[in-house]
Specification:
Blueprint: H1 5-24, E1 55-67, H2 70-77, H3 79-99, E2 103-108, E3 111-117, H4 119-125, H5 129-157, E4 166-182, E5 185-191, H6 193-204, E6 209-212, H7 213-218, E7 229-231, E8 237-240
Parallel strand pairs: 4-6
Antiparallel strand pairs: 1-3, 1-4, 2-3, 4-5, 6-8, 7-8
Helix pairs in contact: 1-3, 1-5, 2-3, 3-5
């Protein structure tokens, strides 16, 4: 089942109105509390069960999404409109991630890193490799739809500056997970070439989803499928559409 654009618009609009009310009333920004750091949701790994300096491996589909020219945009519209914009932008993208059962590993200012797959997902949700890859790719594709039909619709409606453009990268491969820090301050971090590549892909495209060869090769085959992959000239990568 595809994403419900109207539902995501409604949720995003409601979040925006709350943020707008707080700005107008000059109240402090929202405070979000959590039992652990957001990066401690890496599937199959828990901070309190890892030893400092130890590491483990897992295979994941990785998605990076990043806003284009966010610094220049923030300077042009100012702090208040940037604050309101981010509540629209991140809320809408996170609704798409939720629809495709992704695990948000990190929120980096105006970007997201999301994982699919791993042993736990296979055992509990039957999310085999091909499904993890497909969910990641479809999530990226639908983020582009939501950018146009939700994010920019509200931004224009509320006069919050120029339309937002994004870049999306998707890969699949082995990821190393390790616990870094000291007992009073630590986090679980993921490292791997596929993470770096997904990040670089997201930085090189504008309103497109760029994927690795492995994503293209492992994509589920179906007769009359609506997803296509266009080779990127000079690179071992593809544009998903």
């Amino acid at each position: 089942m595809g994403i419900d654009v109207k539902k995501i618009y409604k949720t995003t609009w409601e979040h925006y109105l709350i943020a707008k009310k707080n700005v107008e009333e000059q109240r402090r920004m929202f405070e979000h509390s959590a039992v652990s750091a957001i990066s401690d949701v890496i599937p199959d790994f828990e901070a309190d069960k890892l030893e400092f300096g130890s590491y483990d491996k897992g295979n994941f589909a990785v998605l990076f999404v990043d806003m284009r020219d966010s610094t220049a945009r923030a300077q042009a519209i100012g702090a208040e409109k940037t604050f309101l914009t981010m509540h629209i932008y991140l809320t809408a993208l996170l609704e798409v991630v939720k629809h495709y059962h992704g695990k948000v590993i990190d929120i980096m200012g105006d970007g997201l890193m999301v994982f699919w797959g791993g042993r736990e997902a296979r055992e509990k949700e039957n999310m085999v490799k091909t499904i993890a890859i497909q969910n990641a790719g479809l999530c990226g594709r639908d983020m582009l739809i939501i950018r146009e039909q939700v994010i920019n619709e509200i931004i224009q409606k509320e006069n919050l500056g120029a339309n937002i453009n994004i870049g999306i990268g998707v890969t699949f491969d082995s990821v190393i997970v390790t616990k870094i820090g000291i007992p009073s301050a630590y986090d679980v971090k993921a490292f791997g070439d596929c993470i770096n590549v997904a990040s670089k892909y997201s930085n090189k495209v504008n309103n497109q989803v760029k994927v690795s060869r492995k994503v293209r090769e492992e994509w589920p085959k179906s007769k009359g499928g609506k997803i296509s992959f266009a080779p990127v000239q000079g690179e071992d990568a593809y544009i998903l559409s």
